[in-house]
Amino acid sequence: MTTSDEKGTTGARTDMRTPSVVSEEAWEAARQQLLVKEKAHTRARDALAAERRRMPWMAVKADYMFEGPDGKTSFIDLFDGRRQLIVYRAFYEPGVFGWPEHACRGCSLVADQVAHLAHLNARDTTLVFVSRAPQQDIARLKERMGWDIPWFTLTDRFDADFGVDEWHGTNVFFRDGDQVLRTYFLNNRGDEQMGNTWNYLDITPLGRQELWEDSPEGYPQTQTYKWWNWHDSYVDDAPPDKKWVEVSDAGEAAFRAENAKNKG
């Protein structure tokens, strides 16, 4: 099917060659054919995350300092008492397009996509943004844009030492007592997928921490679905809600039954 004289997203007129229109049966057959590849992609993504959890770690030896809403903040403090820390370097500072009203457009799009942080926090994980802008500017920007991400000011060589002085990037760290270790880093195209709770957890050393995951021996893992909660209802060390366990068990059983039926 070909449509013509349509307006594209850029405002230019273009001819758009679309796929053919078929019957419901043919459409479902095509979907099932593609689903085979999509399932393979999902399994490959899970395997890649498992390999990522086995990457070696690098000790962080410098004592980096940041400026936060309450003043000077150490690197350890950024963890906020949790074991895992994800640090996104956002460009908001003099010289960046949009300053001082806005941060970099790409970094702002990343911030707009960040899911509610309570779900990451429930998996012992903290997410923060860091920039060169002073705290008063960061506070004004967050209020204007409706962001509640913890956002700190860089004061030393952190950005240069971790590959984010000239381009955005996401670094992942693990805290073992007072020792901080760098576990992962991604930038460029890898960063565009971030914001989703699952994608963030998949780049952490502990992963989603669910039983189905292929993780090294001794890593914390809980039953799939059972730790999920409303973002205003997480309680530290609380057991899974009994009613939610029943509901999720029933849903998982139905899901597996449907899969078995389709395979048969």
From TrEMBL:
Q: Where is this region: Disordered?
A: 1-22
Q: Which InterPro entries match?
A: DUF899_thioredox (IPR010296), Thioredoxin-like_sf (IPR036249)
**Domain of life from the UniProt record:** Bacteria
Q: Which SUPFAM superfamilies match?
A: Thioredoxin-like
> Which Pfam family, just one, is annotated for this protein?
DUF899
* Name of the protein in question: DUF899 domain-containing protein
